[in-house]
Specification:
thiamine pyrophosphate, 8 helices, thiamine pyrophosphate binding, alpha/beta, decarboxylase, about 210 residues, TPP_dependent_decarboxylase, Rossmann fold, two-stranded antiparallel ribbon, about 35% helix
């Protein structure tokens, strides 16, 4: 009798593939929890932006980055729970459709960052949902090698790409190499892309640094 493995790959399996196949000058945005903690452990870099305590907002930020940095690939890792919290963000990506944006959705069927609560519809076909939202290049992925093939075979695209990664839940919190400081993460990314800092004023009237 032959035993057939039925378990899905882990987030780490996909992250190792992503780290090995990052396009030159890529910017990577990761959502809260292990999405950011593990990526920092696998591939820490100034070109990363790690979200903390802002569930569902990785996709809007990455869309803004893709628009502002049209000559750089932008890759965002969002969870299925975060996506369902802010479904309108996916529709907006489909409307704008920047060709330099790749959306990776980790589909593990749970809200992993808040304790593993099951999604209301864990079996939803998120690739089909992305296509219906206007992202024609959308596909369900169930093997890390398939992700590697997609990343290595990058050709000229007419719009954004959405890859839904079938993944085992990872409820044990990964310890990142250093504590995250959201302000530091923002300033590091601004420096990496050459963006001026915004200088806040107590009573409004802030300005860009050097302006």
């Amino acid at each position: 009798m032959v035993n057939v493995a039925t378990s899905r790959p882990t987030r780490a399996d996909y992250y190792r593939v992503l780290a090995d196949n990052l396009p030159p000058q890529a910017l990577v945005v990761t959502s809260l929890g292990n999405a950011s903690y593990l990526w920092a452990k696998v591939h820490e870099a100034p070109e990363n932006f790690y979200f903390e305590d802002a569930m569902g907002l990785a996709l809007p930020l990455s869309l803004g980055l893709a628009i502002a940095q049209p000559n750089r690939p932008v890759i965002v890792v969002e969870g299925d729970g975060g996506l369902l919290m802010h479904m309108g963000a996916l529709v907006t990506v489909g409307a704008v459709n920047p060709a330099n944006l790749t959306v990776l959705i980790v589909q593990n069927g749970v809200h992993a960052a808040s304790g593993g609560q099951a999604l209301t519809n864990a079996a939803l076909d998120l690739a089909q949902l992305a296509r219906a939202s206007g992202i024609a290049s959308s596909e369900n992925i169930d093997k890390p090698q398939s992700l590697a093939d997609k990343l290595r075979g990058r050709a000229a695209r007419n719009g954004a790409e959405c890859l839904v990664l079938a993944t085992e839940p990872d409820l044990d919190v990964v310890r990142p190499p250093a504590s995250f400081d959201p302000l530091l993460s923002k300033h590091r990314l601004q420096a990496a892309i050459g963006a001026p800092r915004y200088v806040h004023a107590v009573f409004g009237g802030g300005k860009l640094e050097g302006a």
